[in-house]
Specification:
Number of helices: 8
CATH class of the largest domain: Alpha Beta
Radius of gyration: 21 Å
Number of strands: 13
CATH topology of the largest domain: Rossmann fold
Helix content: 25-40%
Length: about 280
């Protein structure tokens, strides 16, 4: 099945025009969702369509006609075959809860992706990777971020498959702007707080000191500004006055692993459109 995501300044006739284009190329629409912002001055339109084709050769024809169409509507679009699994490199440090959840949901069939490698700046989780028969690549810790990240990019070049995106599953290093730009693709991070509250280091300690009654987790795309990329998914868990920092962390891990997997699933199914540092999610 093919997923088309499409966004442009809102105007009449977009849905009809795209639907007609697909019909004329013998595509059968299975699912269609649309959303338009409420702005009266500059409304924007977003659409996700799932369709199938009997003749795969028609894909190129649709792609070319959409390019012409997008020029007229000042639109951005993407078409992907979601039956082809995306390849994700998973980055970890010492904590295993998010990694285990990703691997379990992948092995159970609830999460459709390939994991060609697990990258880490510590060796402690190598046994987890081995138990799932996934290559584990230990990159020795360098104080110099450039050396550490350059070693990662060189490892990527050794694979026979292309890495489509990166999952930071509790990878406790801040990626440099150089690495983000050099990789040039999506990076999904899990942050252990309900952003924008408590960004940066030790958010659970910050939450404990503030005496909050709920804590949360946030999955977001990585940007050059720390913990400020477009938010994909969030959830919360209640805490009480009797919870110390360790208990808050324990509860927080439950939210972290589920939020991260939900975000990855949305991404692999092409349900996310970014706009103005926000995300439109078609669930």
């Amino acid at each position: 099945m093919i997923v088309l995501t499409f966004s442009c300044p809102d105007r009449k006739g977009i849905v009809a025009s795209v639907s007609r284009l697909l019909f004329e190329n013998n595509a059968n629409i299975i699912e269609s969702n649309q959303y338009s912002t409420n702005s009266s001055t500059n409304p924007h339109f977003f659409m996700r369509i799932v369709f199938e084709m009997e003749n795969p050769a028609g894909f190129q024809s649709i792609n070319q006609r959409l390019a012409d169409f997008a020029f007229i509507f000042n639109a951005g679009f993407k078409m992907t075959d979601i039956s082809v699994k995306k390849n994700a490199a998973v980055f970890v440090s010492k904590e295993d809860h998010c990694l285990y959840e990703l691997l379990w949901q992948k092995s159970s069939g609830d999460l459709s992706l390939n994991i060609p490698c697990i990258i880490s700046n510590h060796e402690i989780l190598s046994t987890v990777a081995k138990s799932y028969d996934i290559p584990f690549i230990y990159i020795q810790h360098h104080q110099n971020s450039y050396k550490h990240e350059d070693a990662i990019l060189k490892e990527f070049q050794k694979f026979n498959v292309e890495i489509d995106f990166i999952i930071l599953a509790k990878y406790m290093r801040i990626l440099s702007d150089n690495f983000i730009n050099a990789f040039g693709k999506k990076i999904i991070n899990i942050h252990h707080s309900f952003l924008p509250s408590f960004p940066g280091a030790k958010p659970y300690l910050q939450a404990y000191r503030k005496g909050v009654k709920i804590i949360g987790a946030t999955a977001h795309f990585v940007s050059e500004k720390l913990d400020d990329g477009p938010i994909i998914e969030q959830d919360i868990i209640r805490i009480n006055h009797g919870d110390d920092v360790n208990e808050i962390k324990r509860k927080g891990k439950i939210a972290e692993k589920l939020v991260l997997v939900k975000a990855v699933k949305l991404f692999t199914e092409d349900r996310i459109i970014e706009h103005d540092n926000k995300t439109i999610i078609f669930e």
